[in-house]
Every structure is written in structure tokens, then in C-alpha cells.
From TrEMBL:
This is Transcription elongation factor GreA/GreB C-terminal domain-containing protein. It holds the Pfam family GreA_GreB. Residues 68-143 form the Transcription elongation factor GreA/GreB C-terminal domain. It comes from the Bacteria. InterPro entries: GreA/GreB_C_sf, Tscrpt_elong_fac_GreA/B_C, Tscrpt_elong_fac_GreA/B_fam.
Length: 153
């Protein structure tokens, strides 16, 4: 039995940049009018660029119309770190109430700015101060002031 030669396989030249998008898709974010108003009162010179962009581009709804699965100010949610799989419970708060070790993320921090307005199932992305990329998926909104009827937080 004679061996037959296999047909030549065409060479395909690809680079990693050919297979990966150059930019990430925009994150769908929704803010309440109250959160937008309160955050706009913070010193604009102190707003991180990611938060300023969020305030400029997010969908804005009345505080009585926000879906209960959106991370709003003072909301508590369960997130999963996409790099490690670790799950954490975090509360998005104003700078005066922040304590990262206790799971209270300031909205002025890169992580807090990334989380604001993200829907359950969505992914928050940010870069830390050293430039490293991070991402967490919002698994569940455990408490949202608007859903609880608490509009004073």
C-alpha cells in the first residue's frame, strides 16, 4: 500500500492583535438623577476621569424608576473577581464612608467609579493606580437604597 501525500495546508499569518478587539465594548450604565446631582456636587477637579466619563455618558433615570439590579450610590452587591474567581460583598459609598478593607469602596476610587451604574450580570472594569487592569462581575445587588425606598442616602 502506497502512502499518499496530504494536500498542502495554506499558511495563515495572524497576530494576537488580529484576534482581539483593540477596545473593550462600552459598559451599559444607569444612574439616578439624585446620584448624578450628588456626584456632580463633588469637586470636579477631584473626579477621576472614569467617573467624569460615567457621569457624562450613563443613562439617567428618576430615582423612583431605577431597576433594582443596578449598583447605585450606597448599594451593596456581591461581585466576583474575574481573574481569581473570589467573591466579595462591597458597598459603593462616598469618600467619607470609604474603608476598602471593610468592603466599602469610594466612588472616587478606580474600583468604585468602575462599579457605579453597572447592572447585575454586568462587568465593572478599571485600572488601579499602578496601571493594572481589574474586572469584577456583579452577581447580585443585595441592597439598593432606591429599591428600599430610602432616598436620603
Amino acid at each position: 500500500m502506497a502512502l499518499r501525500a496530504l494536500p498542502a495546508v495554506p499558511k495563515i499569518s495572524m497576530t494576537l492583535s488580529d484576534t482581539l478587539p483593540t477596545t473593550l465594548p462600552p459598559i451599559e450604565r444607569t444612574l439616578t438623577q439624585l446620584d448624578l446631582l450628588r456626584l456632580s456636587r463633588l469637586d470636579p477637579r477631584g473626579l477621576p476621569p472614569a467617573l467624569a466619563e460615567c457621569l457624562d455618558t450613563a443613562d439617567v433615570v428618576d430615582h423612583t424608576d431605577i431597576a433594582p439590579d443596578v449598583v447605585t450610590m450606597n448599594a451593596e452587591c456581591r461581585v466576583q473577581d474575574l481573574a481569581t474567581g473570589a467573591q466579595h460583598t462591597v458597598r459603593l459609598c462616598y469618600p467619607a464612608d470609604a474603608d476598602p478593607a471593610a468592603g466599602r469602596w469610594s466612588v472616587l476610587s478606580p474600583a468604585g467609579a468602575g462599579l457605579l451604574g453597572v447592572h447585575c450580570g454586568g462587568t465593572a472594569r478599571w485600572r488601579d493606580l499602578q496601571g493594572r487592569a481589574h474586572a469584577v462581575q456583579v452577581l447580585e445587588v443585595l441592597y439598593q437604597p432606591e429599591a428600599a425606598g430610602d432616598f436620603t442616602r
